[in-house]
Fold this protein.
Amino acid sequence: MPTETVSFEVPEDLLASLKTGTTELGRNIRLLAAITYFQEKKLSLGKAAQLAGMNRLVFMDVLAEKGIVIFDYDESMLTSELSGITQLKPSEHDHGNSTPLIAFARIGQLVLLRNVVGKMIIPQAVSDEISESP
């Protein structure tokens, strides 16, 4: 994937005040940008994790540590989402979005997803992403 480089100058005394080096400052700025863009709904969870330079599971853990809500559903939105899931045909369950699986796994409630959806076919790429260790 082609990439672009973003750079800017930082006064040395600022680095000294932060007691950090340029590499760590760069990582922190990437993370803060990713969190901000995610909270402003400018980036999805996966894209924000990519910007932060980490996998989705690690990024979800960072958000949780900072008390940032990952899935902001009110009761009516959740009901609507679950209703949409129950209307899917079994062949449509074979999709590449691992976010719901990861979310339910993180809260230890995969059984809820199974109870709503029933049989699911999980593509190998999705299984690999869910199983990915930080």
